[in-house]
């Protein structure tokens, strides 16, 4: 479940930022994190929370490009680009830790999937823009994506395209 107190009316409550606004703060891309390690962690938490592994991979691809050390201009960190308040809520001690970051991110998207009755587009809008922004902008279903900020309008179809690609590979 998600803690609705985390999601006031401010869009700063979102977990993420688009990949193009993520910068690598490490000296070497994907420093010591192998794709096999990331995939193993994704599989573990996909199973634990009942979230399609392909969706998790799609989110990671869009959020951080699989760079565990990615940091956005807004301060979102790690593979799934967690903001500090979300890291704290989920008990992360190191948002760059693959296990901690992926578990929290998967638990968070699962909360949105539950909140929006499995509506993937609504869950992705909330993950990117925040449910407070959705509420303020009168987003009642996925057809209202046009009311969201440009970043979210670009984010949702990008993740869905990655998702389809992973499902078909």
Could you characterize what this model shows?
By secondary structure, this protein is mainly alpha-helical. Helix content is 50%, strand content 4%. The chain has 7 helices and 2 strands, in the order βααβααααα. A two-stranded antiparallel sheet has the order 1-2. Helix 2 (53-64) packs across helix 7 (150-167) and helix 5 crosses helix 7. The N and C termini lie far apart (31 Å). Mean pLDDT is 85; it is low at 1-31.
* Major sheet: arrangement of strands: 1-2
How many β strands by DSSP? 2
Percent strand: under 5%
Whole-angstrom Rg: 14 Å
Percent helix among the residues? 40-55%
Structural class: mainly alpha
Instruction: Work out the helix count.
Output: 7
Distance between the termini: 31 Å
Major sheet size, sense and barrel closure: 2 strands, antiparallel
- Rounded mean pLDDT score: 85
Q: What is the string of helix and strand elements?
A: EHHEHHHHH
Which spans have pLDDT < 50 for at least 5 consecutive residues?
1-31
Molecular shape: globular
């Amino acid at each position: 479940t998600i803690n609705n107190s985390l999601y006031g009316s401010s869009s700063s409550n979102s977990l993420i930022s688009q990949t193009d606004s993520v910068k690598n703060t490490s000296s070497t891309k994907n420093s010591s994190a192998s794709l096999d390690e990331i995939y193993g962690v994704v599989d573990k938490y996909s199973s634990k929370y009942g979230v399609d592994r392909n969706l998790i991979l799609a989110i990671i691809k869009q959020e951080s490009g699989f760079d565990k050390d990615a940091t956005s201009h807004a301060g979102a960190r790690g593979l799934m680009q967690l903001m500090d308040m979300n890291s704290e809520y989920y008990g992360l001690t190191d948002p760059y830790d693959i296990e901690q970051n992926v578990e929290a991110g998967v638990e968070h998207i699962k909360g949105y999937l539950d909140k929006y009755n499995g509506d993937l587009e609504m869950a992705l809008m909330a993950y990117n823009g925040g449910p407070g922004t959705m509420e303020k902008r009168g987003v009642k279903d996925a057809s209202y994506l046009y009311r969201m900020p440009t970043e979210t309008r670009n984010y949702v179809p990008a993740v869905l395209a990655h998702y389809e690609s992973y499902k078909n590979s």
